[in-house]
């Protein structure tokens, strides 16, 4: 399932791997993504958190300044928060230390009309995917653009970014849950992907479900190796001691929705086990 789009693209003679991450910005941008290089200090912080820093850049997204790393956008404050949490816990996990609190909880979510019928229908599917698992977190669709208390907890917006370096970024999540225990407030979906590759509703739903996963605290299943992106980043023996959620595999899990490169289309059994363990 994961490799299908790659085969499809090989037939089209396009050297593009479908990735949630690894991309640089070019051309127009609905969200005005302006990127610049990162300070050594920030790079070493991100490396310490075991992110793939090969394409990390400063950027402005979701109305804030921060860092683009993997398919995430993190403010410097969020990075420092992650470091503090990790220092407190001394473990590296499949999920982040900060999770959504005040359970059971209904998280409201809204999608920008810029993503059209495809985006709207795909979000309904992504919501069903999570709500059918039976965890203490459920999602409820609300209108986009509401203000104040009615504003969706997670807003799905559109951005526009050309492929680069053999990858196209499908989505970008605005980080992980805050220390206060709220989900990340938004994620973006790349409309260039829609225009260029005409993805199915299932592929868009899977990508949205992947980005929702980050918003509620999932990291990439293969964050140590980036195996799903055709990379083989080996951090050495010290790097593979990650603490996985009980009951999930410690090795590669190619059908996980939370692999770094996809798009997988559904939560696999291990993703569900992890979700139920977290929530
Ligand atoms: Zn991701």
Task: Give the tags.
alpha/beta, Collagenase (Catalytic Domain), 5-stranded mixed sheet, 3-stranded antiparallel sheet, 16% strand, disordered N terminus, binds zinc ion
Main sheet makeup: 5 strands, mixed
**What share of the residues lie within helices?**
25-40%
Radius of gyration: 17 Å
Task: Please state the overall shape, judged from the principal axes of the Cα atoms.
Answer: globular
Tell me the number of strands: 10
> Can you count the helices?
7
CATH top level assignment: Alpha Beta
Bound molecule kinds, no repeats: zinc ion
Question: For the record, what is the CATH homologous superfamily label?
Answer: Collagenase (Catalytic Domain)
Number of domain modules? 1
Q: What fraction of the residues are assigned to beta strands by DSSP?
A: 15-25%
Distance, first to last CA: 27 Å
Which fold does the CATH topology refer to?
Answer: Collagenase (Catalytic Domain)
**Strand order in the sheet with the most strands:** 6-5-7-10-9
* SSE topology string: HEHEEEHEHEEEEEHHH
The CATH architecture is: 3-Layer(aba) Sandwich
Low-confidence stretches: 1-15, 21-30, 235-243
Mean of pLDDT: 81
Explain what the structure shows.
By secondary structure, this protein is of the alpha/beta class. It has one domain (4-278): Collagenase (Catalytic Domain) (3-Layer(aba) Sandwich). It contains seven helices and ten strands. It has helices spanning 4-11, 40-48, 76-89, 116-131, 191-197, 201-215, 269-278, and strands at 17-19, 57-61, 64-69, 72-74, 105-111, 137-141, 154-159, 167-169, 171-173, 186-190. The strands form three sheets. It has a five-stranded mixed sheet. A hairpin with a 2-residue loop joins strand 2 (57-61) and strand 3. Helix 2 (40-48) runs parallel beside helix 3 (76-89) and helix 4 packs across helix 6 (201-215). The longest helix is centred in the middle third of the chain and has 16 residues, at 116-131. The chain is globular, with a radius of gyration of 17 Å. It starts with a helix and ends with a helix. The model is unreliable at 1-15, 21-30 and 235-243 (pLDDT under 50). Residues 20, 70-71, 210, 214, 220 line the site of zinc ion (ZN).
